[in-house]
Design brief:
about 575 residues, alpha/beta, ABC transporter transmembrane region fold, Rossmann fold, 2 domains, four-stranded antiparallel sheet, elongated, transmembrane helix, ATP binding
């Protein structure tokens, strides 16, 4: 909770006003039975109509005061809780944006979505109800006990004995509920994960006829959620009736003892009525405990999950003596790896080991190798998506750890394996890479990426709406759009991670020729030997090690593995042409 509490501070004024108004409501509620007792003894029993009017009018006035206090309290409680949720959600989103990729990958997408939405909503509701109900409930119980003792201590003795026992039972129930509802929230994550996979993979599911299987997966996850939720709610369902049974029996005993003392002229009717009224208010307070147990248990589980997210470490800041201080004016952009090693967090095996090479400014380098050889991992070290575990990576002679992330990444155009597009127009998607670019720049980038002609053949050209994740475009069209988006940034270092796999040979040849003329350093991850033939240098990776470096002809002459890859692809090409 220490991580969560600072988000309440900006709303101290609203919280203070809400609490003061809640206290006004509390005073009104505790005063009401005393006025009722006075009206009963001095008015109804004494047949004094004026006393009835007097005490009745006072009851109406304080009821109106309580009503007005409740309305205004709701306004301030809503203001504080909504602002609190807004700030908390913004901070969580900011933490995700600025956290290191390794930290980000610790959580599934479904879990992050649940924390940003459902968990924040649970805390918002608990905060609002705390200002409206939760804090008032224990005060009503304690205040009613005190007032009952002031009316008649002997008659209130039973309430004094029973109430602490009920609080103990309630505390045990809430402690058990925290663990149960955390289990519920974790299962919500898992169910959302299954749901998300099915929504995103609906085409594949239908193509493979796996609808029944996926329906069974979702049903199992849903059944598990229902079972865990039922277990959590059953605790409250068993606890509350027990509390109410004890309280109602206590009220019956109070009525019996009160009637005995009234018969002996030891107690007035109004006193018995007031004590019973206070006992009824204590009973009513405990009747809302089920809501408190459920909401606070959910809120505790949610706050733990949110705090876990807020404790994520930000991406590593530049070291002292940054590139700005050493006088580097920008990226030219040469790339040097010096004995670089890398392993993913929480894994012992090295993905890259002792990788050393140099790419001169303006050169095009192709990175080739078998699946799992470390090609993508190598590429992701340059924009510091991940941090290298060993060695040094230099851009234009400067260690990339000395560059502020924003400036470093501003010089890099990165195209990942999966072509990620957003809902909006084609123009919007391209400008996402560089929002200040002109339309001429957009068209130029599209032409270099060999997608301009395709766009112009669409019904609305650059204003054509792209479906979710580019669902209304082919794989090759999506890949070329993401390349155009990267080019629009006018990068000095272009990183292409196997993003031409869906292109036909002719289109890919034109694209690579256009990129060859583009004034930047280019690193292209690919499995196609044809793409390597025109490259300035080829890096051959195998099991995380750099086996060879040189141009296409040199590797054909010196590397047996490279020759095998080339021969295999040549045979496949000949077979496909037969």
């Amino acid at each position: 909770m220490k991580v969560i509490l600072p988000f309440i501070k900006p709303y101290r004024t609203s919280v203070t006003v809400a609490l003061l108004l809640m206290l006004v409501e509390l005073v009104v509620e505790l005063w009401h039975p005393l006025l009722l007792a006075r009206m009963t003894d001095q008015g109804i029993i004494a047949h004094d109509f004026h006393a009835v009017l007097l005490w009745g009018a006072m009851m109406v006035v304080i009821a109106l005061i309580g009503f007005a206090s409740g309305i205004i309290n709701t306004f301030y409680a809503s203001d504080a809780s909504q602002g609190f949720a807004f700030d908390l959600r913004s901070a969580m989103f900011g933490k995700l944006v600025h956290s290191s990729y390794a930290e980000y990958n610790r959580y599934e997408t479904s879990s992050l979505l649940t924390r940003l939405t459902g968990d924040v909503n649970q805390l918002q509701l608990a905060f609002f109800l705390s200002l409206r109900v939760f804090l008032r409930i224990p005060l009503v119980i304690v205040g009613s006990l005190i007032m009952a003792v002031m009316v008649d201590a002997r008659l209130s003795l039973l309430l004094i004995l029973v109430t602490p026992v009920l609080f103990g039972v309630l505390g045990w129930s809430m402690k058990r509920g925290f663990g149960l509802f955390r289990s519920v929230q974790n299962q919500v994550d898992r169910m959302n994960g299954v749901l998300r996979e099915n929504i995103l993979g609906i085409r594949l599911i239908r193509a493979f006829g796996r609808g029944v299987h996926e329906n069974r997966r979702f049903t199992n996850a849903n059944d598990d959620l229902q079972e865990r939720t039922s277990s959590a709610l059953r605790l409250a369902e068993l606890t509350i009736p027990s509390l109410l049974l004890i309280m109602n029996l206590s009220v019956l005993i109070i009525l019996w003892l009160g009637s005995e003392r009234m018969a002996a002229w030891q107690l007035q009717v109004g006193a018995v009525l007031a004590v019973v009224n206070y006992a009824a208010r204590i009973t009513a307070a405990f009747s809302t405990v089920s809501m408190i147990v459920t909401s606070l248990s959910r809120a505790k589980a949610s706050s733990d999950r949110i705090a876990e997210l807020l404790r994520l470490e930000d991406a590593e800041s530049p070291q002292k003596g940054s590139a700005l201080e050493t006088g580097a004016a920008g990226l030219s952009c040469g790339v040097v790896f010096e004995q670089v090693g890398f392993r993913y967090p929480d894994t012992a095996a090295a993905v890259l080991s002792d990788v050393t090479f140099e790419i001169k400014p303006g050169q095009t380098a192709v990175i080739i190798g078998a699946t799992g050889s470390g090609k993508t991992s190598l590429l992701q070290l340059l924009p510091r998506i991940y941090e290298n575990s060993e060695g040094t990576i230099r851009l234009d002679g400067t260690d990339i750890r000395f560059w502020p992330d924003e400036r470093l990444r501003g010089q890099i155009g990165y195209v990942p394996q999966e072509a990620q597009l957003f809902t909006g127009t084609i123009k919007d998607n391209l400008l996402w890479g560089e929002g200040t670019a002109s339309m001429d720049d957009v068209i130029e980038a599209a032409q270099r990426a060999q997608i301009h002609g395709t766009i112009m053949n669409l019904p609305h050209g650059y204003d054509t709406v792209v479906g979710q994740k580019g669902s209304n475009l082919s794989g090759g069209q999506r890949q070329r759009l993401t390349i155009a988006r990267a080019l629009l940034r006018k990068p000095k270092l272009l990183l292409l991670d196997d993003c031409t796999s869906a292109l036909d040979a002719a289109t890919e040849e034109k694209l690579l020729a256009a990129l060859k003329l583009y004034p930047c350093t280019t690193l292209l991850v690919t499995n196609k030997i044809a793409s390597a033939q025109s490259a300035d240098t080829v890096l051959l990776l195998d099991n995380g090690k750099l086996l060879a470096q040189g141009d296409h002809n040199r590797l054909l002459a010196q590397s047996e593995l490279y020759r095998r890859i080339a021969d295999s692809q040549r045979r496949e090409e000949l077979a496909s042409n037969v």
